[in-house]
Amino acid sequence: MTVLPLPAAALASRVATARHFLMTTPTHFDVTYVINPWMDPGQPVDAVLAGAQWSTIRELYLSLGHRVEVVDGEPGLPDMVFAANAATVVEGTAYGARFRTPQRAPEAAHVAGWFAERGVRVVAPTAVNEAEGDFAWTGEVLLAGTGFRTDPGAHAEAQEVLGVPVVSLHLVDPRYYHLDTCLVVLDDAADRAATVAYYPAAFSPGSQKVLARLFPDAVLADAADAACLGLNAVSDGRNVVLAQEATRLADLVAERGFVPHLVDVSELRKAGGGPKCVTMELRGLQLDDRS
Ligand code: ARG
Question: Could you tell me the superkingdom of the organism this chain comes from (predicted)?
Fold first, then answer.
């Protein structure tokens, strides 16, 4: 019997870095309109279970040593729990959101107001963009989705406001309407090449080539990994929080040295969301201490 050596990647030691997150309370979460193919107001949301699922994610972040800011959800804004859509914060600069749909439009001002109360100016966008729904920071470049929600003009605006290079990617499958439904940055350390996972079929042929060129060692998700929104995951460089159905994807990231944490997101998924959608990352941001 020959003993096969472990692939080099499996030996890589993954290092978690402390993160600063923002989450919005799920108090008013519901599915009352349809703005993506996951949503069906005829399928009831279990509000208590949704609340428990949100709390589990928050407590997991705290147990991993991360900081979590909590913004109150607003009545009449059932998707406001998806905090990732409200601003993009990179190296201390906050670029605001401008939602595609009227149903979600008021969320941007609520969250910008929360930042303002803590001494942070959110740069108001002129172009439609759903923030971290379509922007993913790799530590070096900002990957930017378009096709369903965020306008390509916002890619240029983000580059100007944030002062980081932006790479535009075209989304082609309406089930994967935001970049963060089909791509996750697993390792965003600035001093080495980023590790990402993505579902190729969600991208146009040209964007698939761009991704293959930028990330030749990416973890490639399959249709089943994507269909449970397994890529809507959050990584701290070592720990990866993802939907519990995404067992194949979890195994693949574990082979690369990451530690998967499987969570139940059944209720959030009824609105087309998962762990990443409910999590905004505050990169390099200093908030005024109000205590
Ligand atoms: N129902 C919400 C919408 O369609 C879900 C947003 C999920 N957020 C995300 N970052 N992908 O806008």
Answer: Bacteria
